Amino acid sequence: MTRGVGATPHDKGSPAVRVEGLYVGRFAPSPTGPLHAGSLVAALASWLDARAHNGRWLVRIEDVDQPRCVPGADTFILQQLATCGLHPDAPPQWQSARSSLYQRALDQLVAQGDAYPCACSRKDIEDAHAAQGHARERHAALPYPGTCRHGLHGRTGRSWRFNVTDFKPKQPIALVDHAWSATYSVADGMLQWRDRRLGRQQQQVANAVGDFVLRRADGLWAYQLAVVVDDADQGITDVVRGEDLADNTPRQILLQQALGVPTPRYLHTPLVCGDNGEKLSKQNGAQALELQNPVVALSQAALALGLPAVANLHNICIPDALAQWVAAWRRNYNGPP
Ligand code: GLU
């Protein structure tokens, strides 16, 4: 980690570490296929937000879930971004090269008593819920019932989990920005935070997801741990990403707090739905972006973000179109004047 918490006293009682004027944003695609119309919305939004704040924009290839990665998809995504005029301000990073950072974070959590080994398979978790008479909603992830929280009882640990249930933060959440808000109440386990687009959000993490996985039984790092470690290590001040990830944010804020790294500001962008009304995603077969005319693809993404159409769509060059959307974004999302 390159940043610590609490370096600057917060006049309202909680630590904040934002260096005034500093903005670092990122786009973090998983290379499970090419960008589609939905992922371009998140890419464009994070780029526009960084430009609107005169900040830096980074790209991180999230390839920790190797079995789901498609060979060559990372290079293809980087080419698609370049074709759209979205150029990162530093060379992209690959999560697969960063295991030692994730291991160090896990070691820290274990040493603090915030993580424990778990022997349960998915079937064990389902059986534990069935034994308690819980009905399973279709597609709903089952909260971890806590079987291994206080010991393996002779079983062999397969994965590592974050102990949300017993987590007692030692200090208020360290925010990158005084104007930003996120709080955790130990009394009822409620994590509240304010999304820049969705407004006030809340989740009782222990009830909603339970003690979540940091390192999987197959040895792969879980998204929650990798994303928190990388956002902190890369000094990310602003996370702009698709709304389907909004309910992951409370888990990430708790991990940031446990690791003693600051919580960025969050903005979750609207999702693009296909003709069947379902969110476009690689899993449900979204088409790769048609980039014969990148301004047209960008303009559809801009429209999904509620930005005005540019005049002369078929004659405008990409930098001019992007500049118009930066100005519009600044008006909508409080960038500097
Ligand atoms: N890698 C994730 C995805 O492609 C995005 C993670 C994030 O932005 O936090 O869905």
Automatic annotation (TrEMBL):
Highest rank taxon of the organism: Bacteria
EC number: 6.1.1.-
Alphabetized UniProt keyword annotations: Aminoacyl-tRNA synthetase, ATP-binding, Ligase, Metal-binding, Nucleotide-binding, Protein biosynthesis, Zinc
Any one cellular-component term (Gene Ontology): cytosol
InterPro entries for this protein: Glu-Q_tRNA(Asp)_Synthase, Glu/Gln-tRNA-synth, Glu/Gln-tRNA-synth_Ib_cat-dom, GluQ/Sye, Rossmann-like_a/b/a_fold
Cofactor(s) needed for function: Zn(2+)
Binding site for L-glutamate: R26, F27, A28, P29, S30, E62, Y223, R241
Ranges spanned by the short sequence motif 'KMSKS' region, renumbered to the chain: 279-283
Binding of ATP, residues: K282
Role noted for this protein: Catalyzes the tRNA-independent activation of glutamate in presence of ATP and the subsequent transfer of glutamate onto a tRNA(Asp). Glutamate is transferred on the 2-amino-5-(4,5-dihydroxy-2-cyclopenten-1-yl) moiety of the queuosine in the wobble position of the QUC anticodon.
Protein name from the UniProt record: Glutamyl-Q tRNA(Asp) synthetase
Protein source organism: Acidovorax delafieldii (Pseudomonas delafieldii)
